[in-house]
Amino acid sequence: MRSLVSNRCAPARAGSNTLTRFAALSPRASRRAAELVGRILLAAHGGIEPNVEESWKQETRRRVAEIQSGQARGIPLDEALADARKRAGL
Hints:
Layout: E1 2-5, H1 18-24, H2 27-45, H3 50-69, E2 72-75, H4 77-88
Parallel strand pairs: 1-2
Helix pairs in contact: 1-3
């Protein structure tokens, strides 16, 4: 099973993470949430190149599909960062 790292954007129940919660949304809710995130990022950081934007959309769809199918599981950010620090000897 492949693991994916995610940032927690809002308080969540113990053991849950943003990608897992996002993947659990209905397709319509997922699209609306993704659109909202995109609008927030656009307002905060300005536009991005169309080819970069499309690449990230495809990557996001792929990762969500992997979680929904059970091929991957999300890893809470705190856990992923602790692992990275350990590997880096920090």
